[in-house]
Amino acid sequence: MFSDPTFWVAIAFILCMVGLGFLKVHKTIGGMLDARADAIRAELDAAQKLREDAQALLAQYQRKQREAMQEAEQMVAHARHEAKRIVEQGQTQLSQSIERRERMAMTKISQAESDAIAEVRATAVDVAMAATEQVLRTQLSADRQAKLVDDTIASLKTLH
Fold it and tell me: Domain residues of the chain, as ranges?
């Protein structure tokens, strides 16, 4: 049987058929695996692109956040500067107002002192005149009083 050439031809034929069948199946399986690998590769490429897009978007949002933080810090610094300026301006206005009121009070005090001095002088003059009148009435005679009045009238005429 092993020496019969027909046997070997049959074996070779079977092996060729199996080989051809295996190649077709292998090609089919290989084609399916290649298609699956291509699909997986496409999904990986799409996932990589999505990852890159997400990283770019994250970087953009982080940049915007930094810019917003810087802007917020600038706004806070500006607000502090404005508040400081307003406080300083208020303190200046307050000190000016206090000085103005102090000057007004000093002026009123000075005026009140002048009025008080004038009133005291007027009262002193009135008291002195009343005392002089009292002294003159009690100690001078009527002739002497008349002569003093005449002398005073004469001195007034020379003044004008």
Answer: 5-159
Give Rg (Cα) of the chain: 64
Phi, psi at residue 3, to the nearest 5°?
-95, -5
- φ and ψ of 140, to 5 deg: -105, 145
Of the candidate ranges 7-21, 62-76, 82-96, the one whose mean pLDDT is the lowest = 7-21
Nearest to 98 by CA among 109, 90, 108: 90
pLDDT, tens digit (0-9, with 9 covering 90-100), for 71-116:
999 999 999 999 999 999 999 999 999 999 999 999 999 999 999 9
- Residue 140 is classified by DSSP as S
Residue given tokens 């915007």 in the structure block: 64
Confirm if 148 and 140 have CB atoms less than 8 A apart.
yes
The whole model's pTM is what? 0.43
**Tokens 């500067």 sit on residue:** 81
State how far the alpha carbon of 130 is from the alpha carbons of 19, 57, 134, 141, in Å: 160, 106, 6, 18
